[in-house]
Design goal:
Blueprint lengths: L6 E7 L6 H4 L9 H16 L7 E10 L10 E12 L2 E10 L2 E14 H5 L4
Antiparallel strand pairs: 1-3, 2-5, 3-4, 4-5
Length: 124
């Protein structure tokens, strides 16, 4: 059962492949905002994955986050997601990203529980 307080931390090393220049979200070799937000989503997904019914997963519905500081190639970034509210198939999270003790970004994320097979039938 998914409950408030469930938590997971994901981590990554910043590589050239996740820089703003490589992803096209900017033109510098620093961690791209979309990559930071993807790490936050990954943490949220993994926080609840063990508690889902068989055949189900979660999909992202909304994410809002600041991106406060640049992070260079080679740095380790962690993202933590904590379940703050569960309303049926809707799960809300508080998300944060850090490089060491430095806060890189924080915000909120919403995921929805879906049946994998049924969800895939809706692809356009």
């Amino acid at each position: 059962m998914i409950e408030t307080g469930l938590k997971h931390t994901s981590e990554m090393i910043v590589t050239e492949d996740v820089t703003a220049a490589k992803l096209g979200s900017g033109d510098m070799a620093v961690l791209a905002t979309p990559a930071m937000m993807a790490l936050m989503e990954n943490a949220a997904m993994l926080a609840v994955a063990p508690y889902l019914p068989e055949g189900c997963t979660t999909v992202g519905g909304h994410i809002a986050s600041s991106h406060l500081r640049p992070t260079k190639v080679g740095d380790k970034v962690t993202a933590t997601a904590i379940v703050t509210k569960v309303d049926g198939k809707r799960i809300e999270f508080k998300v944060e990203a850090h490089c060491g003790d430095t806060l890189l970004g924080e915000g909120t994320h919403i995921r929805f529980i879906v049946n994998r097979n049924k969800f895939l039938t809706k692809i356009l």
